[in-house]
Amino acid sequence: MPAKIRRWVPPLLWLLLFLLAVYRFEWIQSAFSGVFVEKQALRSRAPLSYYAWQHVVLVFVSTGFSLVLGISLGLLTHFRPFREFRTILLQTATFFQTLPSVAILALTVPLLGYGQTPVVIALVFYGLLPILRNLLEGLDAVPEDVRTAAAGMGMTPFQCLYNVEWPLALPAVIAGVKTSVIINVSAATIGAAVGAGGLGILIVNGIRTMDIVMIVKGALPVSLLALLLNSLFSLSDRREFRSK
After folding, report:
1. 61-113 pLDDT, tens digit each
2. Enclosing domain of residue 139
3. Does residue 94 belong to any structural domain of this protein?
4. Whose CA is closest to 219, among 174, 183, 173, 186?
5. CATH code for the domain in which residue 187 is found
């Protein structure tokens, strides 16, 4: 099998397993039928795919906001007039990530109400630090003589950032986005607490009713989605490395 095709095997495998877990969970459920029995009262409220795609939307919307915010603030503090705010910015992002998700929801729900908005805000805070930290570390890792050579060629600080520093820091940025996405895939299950939907609803309902099948129905797609995204980012990392 050619190497280019072989690299796509893991992502395609995880994608297939994720789609099977979402659209053909009854095949997996049959393996549990001899041990666990699903509660009839919670079986047909909504199709599993409905909760799965709610979960995917929560993850990608929140990660998109984290990406825009993290890159904007990171690039801003890279310039000399704003560099003194870098430590404060990193400490603030670290503080938000260490806050329990329940505490963030408790602060945002009274102001914004129930639904997806407070969950997206909580996930943005959770996903901000890896992107911001990796961006700053990637820019700091650019050798000083490279910057000196760029300045000697007549580049302005912005041109040096766009043409030299950003391409060299991009692998670190991608690694930060990967960490942020994986964190949010798991953390998005908190959406069940405030009516935001997602696969967390199945997990919470399964815990409340001691329904093992319901818990697996929610947890398995979450795990497979995380593995799928991790595989895609690993593929991107390898391609980025080979292009250097």
Report:
1. 999 999 999 999 999 888 878 888 888 988 988 888 887 777 777 778 888 87
2. 3-23+69-243
3. yes
4. 186
5. 1.10.3720.10
**Total domains in the fold of the chain:** 1
CA angle 69, 72, 74 (to 5 degrees): 100
Helices (H), 79-115: 86-98, 101-112
Q: Encoding tokens for residue 30?
A: 């049959």
pLDDT tens for residues 142-176? 888 888 888 888 888 888 888 888 888 898 999 99
Residue 66, CB-side half-sphere exposure with 13 Å CA sphere: 36
Please enumerate in sequence order all residues whose Cβ is within 8 A of that of 163, keeping only pairs 6 or more positions apart, or say none: 150, 155
Give the angle subtended at the CA of 131 by the CAs of 81 and 190, to the nearest 5°.
Answer: 130
Residue 63, in any domain of the structure: no
